[in-house]
Amino acid sequence: MNRNDLNPDASPEAAYGARLRSLREARGWTQEDLAERAEYSSVHVSAVENGRKPPTLRFSRSVDRVFGFEGTPDSFEREYREIKHGSLLEGFPEYVDYEGRAVEIRLYEVGVIPGLLQTPEYAATLEADAVRREAITPEQAEERVELVSRRQATLARTPSPLILAVLDESCIRRPLGDPAIMDAQFERLLKFAERPNTVLQVAPFSMGARRPFSLPITVLTMPDRSIMSYAESAQRGHLERDTRSVLPMLTAYHQLQAEALSQAAAVAMISKLRKGTP
Questions:
Q1: Could you list the mean pLDDT of each consecutive 10-residue stretch along the chain, which spans 278 residues?
Q2: In this protein, which residues make up the domain named HTH cro/C1-type (predicted)?
Q3: Which end of the chain is more exposed for a tag (fewer CB within 10 A), N or C?
């Protein structure tokens, strides 16, 4: 057996591998025994244990099933998710936690449909392009698509949070994937607009310099009525919790809504695009 003396403190992957090895040996199993139970090769198990191969979501769920850890705080899936946060933009995992508890979500997006409104197919197309550019791995793309679904599911709670979405016109003009994917995405947007706890608007190109934001921005209102904002640069995401800094953004968002198309006009624009009408 190719055994390395891993230092669990060397990296999250090393800690994962050392824990996997410890649990396996505590049961008196060889790597071949675990591999057979998890339906993986012994070479794969060895690589994960020795830190040569990072764990995947599918592998983590398999070993959770083998060890009886499914849905528990000790699950390997939970540990994997903590590791994979390293592939997400710094600051984003913290934001997602607050997003899942917010009572009001105000978002403005440029260029792409925001994650909370994406269909799985649209999300997969977006991440597939990142894989093509070698910005992320196929495993990371799969996890990001799943994260979109988990974020949407978290918001499907009672009472429902108020979600106000203003999309730059570029979001709906930019084709992503084949026509069927865009048709389904347009349908998702139209259904989103019908919900009692949502408002959908479009900031048309004609707004020009009157558009108060040049980059995407999200403003959250928490259950205690505190507010925070989230914005991203190319290097990291920034969660701002200082009310004095967030209030001007909230004011600018109100100005954005006042200048943007009404929900009825936005729905009409999306419906025309869906029919292929300019």
A1: 62 86 94 95 93 88 94 84 62 84 96 96 94 84 87 87 97 94 97 96 95 94 96 78 94 97 98 86
A2: 20-76
A3: C
